[in-house]
Amino acid sequence: MKLKVLLIGSGGRESALAWKIKQSPLLSEFKVFPGNGGFQPEEILPVGSIDLKNKFSVQNFIKKEKFDFVIVGPEEPLVDGITDWLTEIHVPCFGPSAYCAQLEGSKDFAKSLMKEFGVPTARYSTFTNFEDAKKYIESHSTPIVVKADGLAAGKGVMVCKSAKEAIEFIHDIFIAHKFGKSGNKVVIEEFLDGEEASIFGICDGSNFLLLPPAQDHKRAFDNDEGPNTGGMGAYSPTSLISTEVLKQIQENIFQPMLAGLQKKGYPYKGLLYAGLMISKEGKVNIVEFNCRFGDPETQAILPLIEDDLLEVFYEASTGKITKKGLKLKNGFSTVVVLAAKGYPDFYEKGIDLFFPPIPNKESFIFHAGTVVSRDGILKSNGGRIAGIVAIGNTLKDSIEKVYNILRTISSPKIFYRTDIGKKGLF
Length: 426
Prior knowledge:
four-stranded parallel sheet, about 25% strand
C-alpha cells in the first residue's frame, strides 16, 4: 500500500508532522495546503486550490487530485466538519468528527461531557451574558479562571487574580467582542493549583496510544510573565508524569472519554490532546481537551518517536491501531519558539530571516510563520516564526543545544524566551 497524502495547515506543528510523515515507506506523494516557507515549492498546493470552509470545494478537490489520505493540523477545519465531509466521499482523514471536535470547539460542551463521563476537572458554571457572569464573579473568591467558550487561538483563557481583572476580561468577551463568536458564552472555573502538562493520544475510536508527555510554556516572557500566547516553547518528556500519574491519565481520562463517546455513537478517531493540571499530591485534573496536535509541543515530541507515524495515523483513521506502544528514543527534546517582537499583540511581518545551518541530526528548525518572497528571500509571515529543536541525553543537554543554535540567530525584530525547560530541571 502506498498513500498520496495531503497535510492541512501552515504552522510549526505541520512542519514537524511533514518531517515525520516523509520518513514513511508508505508515502507515495506528499502535498501541503497552505504550507509555509519551510516547505519545498513543489509540495505546496497553489493559493486558492481549496476553500477549507466549503464542503463541496474540499470534496471536489480531494476527488479530482485522488488523495488517499488527509491529515489535518489545525482545529478550525476539524470543528467545521472536514472529517465528516471526507467520510462522505470515502477518503480517510486523521482527525475527529465535527461532533467530537466540539471538545475543543466549545468549552461548555467539553465540561458537560467530562461531568457526564466522570472525568476529573475543575468545578464550573456557564454564562451567556455579562451581567450574570459579573454577579457570579463578585460572589466568588479569586483567583478564578475565565474562558471564552469557542475557538480563540489559545488566547481566550485568563487566570484572574482579582474580581476586577475577571470582570474586565468578561467585558472583553461579551461587550468588546474581542474573540468574535467565541464570546457568545463564557465558562468560569475554580482555580486549580499545580503544574500544567500535556499528553497526546492517537485514538481509533476505542483504543489509544499515548505519546511522550510534554510541558508547554504559554506566557510570552521569561518566568511565565506577560500575555498568554499559542505557546513559546516546550520540552519532552516531563517528570511531572510519573508512572502513577500516567495510570490516572489512562484510566480516569482517556478510557472514560473514548468509552463515553463510543456509547453515544460518536467514536473519537484522531488525536486527542489532554491539557492537565497535576497537584503537588499527584492528583490529575483536565484543564482542557484539544482535538489536534498541540503547537509547539508536537515539535519537541515527534523527534523522540522512532515508529512510522503515518502508518499509525492511517490505522487509527481506518480501523484499529495494531501497536501496543510506541518505540521512543532515549533522551529529551526541547523546542524554543522564535517570535516577532510584539507577539502576541501587534507585530511586524516581512522580517528578513537568516537561519543557520543545522549542526547535527538531532537538531531541527521547524518553520511556522515564514514565507519565501518572489525574489527568493525567506521572510516572516506571522507572530511565531519558527521552532528551534534539539535532542539531548539529558534535559539540560537538550536545553543547552537549542540555545547554542538560537545564539547564532540575531535580529532586533525577533525575540524568544531564555528559560524554556528550566522548570523541568528542578
